[in-house]
Amino acid sequence: MKYYIIAGEASGDLHASNLMKAIKLEDPQANFRVWGGDLMEEAGGHLVKHYRDLAFMGFLEVVKNLRTILGNIKFCKTDILTWQPDVLILVDYPGFNLRIAKWAKKVGIKVFYYISPQIWAWHSSRVHGIKASVDRMFVILPFESDFYEKYAYHVDFVGHPLLDVAETKPKDPDFLTQNGLSPKPIIALLPGSRKQEISRMLPTMCSLQSQFPGYQFVLAGAPGIDEKFYTSTLSGLDQAATVKIVRGQTYALLQHATAALVTSGTATLETALFEVPQVVCYSGNWLSYFIARRLVNVKYISLVNLVLDRPLVTELIQEDFNTKRLKVSLQEVLSTEGAAQLKAGYQELKQLLGQSGASTRAAKLMVGYLKDS
C-alpha cells in the first residue's frame, strides 16, 4: 500500500520513522512518500520536503512567513493528489496538518493522525473538525482518550513512543572521549529545535556556566540547525568558547548528563524518561506569549507536569526565565534531595505513559484498519 506521511518537526521525524519501520513489518510492500527529515528518509521514505523548511514558531513568525506556508500547503495538496496514496498519515504538527486533513477528507483520501494535536491545551473546539476530517486518531498521552471521549470520539491510545527509545538505547561508554568532553559532570542544554527559540533560550542558559565551575555545559545541537548559528548566537558571551556542541546525539548526551536545562516541549518528556533532573524553561516573543496566555487552558507548560497533573519539575516562564532564577533552580535539582525527588516522580510518569511498543501497536492498528476497509 501507499502511505503519504507528513511530520513537521524533529520529534515527528523520529516517531514517524519508527512508525514506518513498524508498518514495513506488517506490510512488506509499503511505499512511503514523506514530509519530514533524515530519519524518515533513512527508513525508506521518498522525502518531498524537509522539516527545517517548515518550522515557524509563534504567531508573529507565522504571519511573517504566511506566503511560504500557504505555498507549502498548495504544493502539498497537489503532490498528494498526483501520488494518490491509500492513506494519509499526519504526525502532530497541527497548524499545517489539520488544514491538510480537512482538505483530504473532502477529496476522498483516508486520513490517520498519529500523535494528537494538543487541542486539550487550547482551542478545544477544534475537536469537531478532527471528528469530521480524521478517520482514525492514535494518541500517545493517557489523558487524551478521556478528552476525546467527552466529545463522543473514540481514539486508540497506543502508549508513548519515547518509552521505546529510552528503554532500548544502550549507553555509549566512549561518548565523552569521542566528543572531546572532560570527565566533569555534564549540564545538558536543550534550547529547542527552532532558530527563534534557540536565540532566546541559549544565551541565558549559557550565562550560568561560570557559576558552576565543577560542571561542563554541553549543548545538544538540533537536526537541521547549522553549527555556525549556535556559535553566532553565543558570540560575545563570557566563556562561550568552552560550551561544547554535540550534534545528533541528544539521547546519548542525556544518558551521561547530571542535570539539564530544557526548553518546554517534547524534550521535557525525553529528559524525564532518561531520568535526568531538569529545569524547564520558556521565553517567547512578548506578543505571541500575550496571545497564548489568553488561549491556553492548561496549568503547566511541560508534558511531565501535565501527565502527572502536578508540578514535579520547575517551570521558568517569560520574566521568570532569568539568570538569577535559573541558577537557584539548577542548584535545587543538583542537590541530592532535589534529584531524588525528581527521579521518584519520573518512575510514576513512566507508569502513566503505558508500556513500550507504541510504534508497533500503532502500525498493527493502521494496517489492520486499512485491510478491513
What report would you give on this structure?
With 373 residues, this protein is of the alpha/beta class. The chain folds into two domains: 2-160 and 357-372, Rossmann fold, CATH 3.40.50.2000; 167-352, Rossmann fold (3-Layer(aba) Sandwich), CATH 3.40.50. It has helices at residues 10-26, 38-42, 59-64, 66-83, 94-106, 126-133, 142-149, 162-168, 175-178, 195-206, 227-234, 250-256, 266-273, 286-295, 303-308, 323-334, 336-352, 358-372; strands at residues 2-7, 31-36, 45-50, 87-91, 111-114, 136-139, 156-157, 186-190, 216-221, 244-247, 257-263, 278-282, 314-317. The protein is globular.
Q: What is the secondary structure topology, with strand pairs?
A:
Blueprint: E1 2-7, H1 10-26, E2 31-36, H2 38-42, E3 45-50, H3 59-64, H4 66-83, E4 87-91, H5 94-106, E5 111-114, H6 126-133, E6 136-139, H7 142-149, E7 156-157, H8 162-168, H9 175-178, E8 186-190, H10 195-206, E9 216-221, H11 227-234, E10 244-247, H12 250-256, E11 257-263, H13 266-273, E12 278-282, H14 286-295, H15 303-308, E13 314-317, H16 323-334, H17 336-352, H18 358-372
Helix pairs in contact: 1-18, 4-5, 5-6, 10-11
